[in-house]
Amino acid sequence: MKKHKILMVCLGNICRSPLAEGILKSKVDSSKVYVDSAGTGHWHVGDEPDKRSIAVGKKYNIDITQQRGRQFSTSDFENFDEIYVMDNSNKENVLALAENDSHKEKVKLILDEIFPNENVDVPDPYFGGDAGFENVYKMLDEACEQIAQRF
Ligand code: 4NP
């Protein structure tokens, strides 16, 4: 059977989406679901995840050290079945690259999984303290639990 492919997207692909990728991977059968992540920005292409994301992941036994930053590309609309964005700004940036309705329909705000229709963002923790990363982890863990239950 064809694998279901899920892409997690944030701005830098070093803080939020690498955690989302690692958390969801830990909750699904990798023979059924493929999970990847990307950033809408180009600044961190090839970089390891942020040390603070690595640390909070490690605290909960999620190892994201092998991930490397990559930039979202229009080919991702064809390669993935679902594209989860971390915030409304990411959503705008991704939708701006969509070429048709089928592309647009794949784009979903990840916290809609736990707060449907409330339009809640996963806050960008990059310029905040470590507490921000713990908060991000918990939100993503809950959202990924919902996603994983469908597989
Ligand atoms: P992320 O956080 O989108 O969760 O990976 C950010 C990381 C880096 C930058 C912005 C957000 N940056 O501007 O370099």
Low-confidence stretches: none
Q: Let me know the average pLDDT.
A: 97
- What fold name stands as the CATH topology? Rossmann fold
Terminal CA distance: 13 Å
Instruction: Count helical runs.
Output: 6
Q: What does the overall shape look like?
A: globular
What is the chains' assembly state? single chain
Give, in spatial order, the strands making up the sheet with the most strands: 2-1-3-4
CATH class: Alpha Beta
Find the count of extended strands (DSSP E, 2+ residues). 4
Name given to the CATH homologous superfamily:
Response regulator
Major β-sheet annotation: 4 strands, parallel
Bound molecules: 4-nitrophenyl phosphate
Order of helices and strands: EHEHHEHHEH
Strand content range: 5-15%
The SS-based structural class is alpha/beta
Rg (C-alpha, Å) = 14 Å
Write the CATH architecture name.
3-Layer(aba) Sandwich
Helix content: 25-40%
The number of distinct structural domains comes to: 1
Overview of the structural elements:
- The chain is α/β, with parallel strands linked by helices.
- It has helices at residues 16-27, 51-59, 75-79, 88-95, 101-105, 130-148, and strands spanning 4-10, 33-39, 82-85, 107-109.
- The chain contains six helices and four strands, in the order E-H-E-H-H-E-H-H-E-H.
- The mean pLDDT is 97.
- Helix 1 (16-27) links the parallel strand 1 and strand 2 (33-39).
- The chain has a single domain, classed as Response regulator (Rossmann fold).
- The radius of gyration is 14 Å and the shape is globular.
- The structure holds 4-nitrophenyl phosphate (4NP).
- 4-nitrophenyl phosphate binds at residues 10-16, 39, 43, 124, 126.
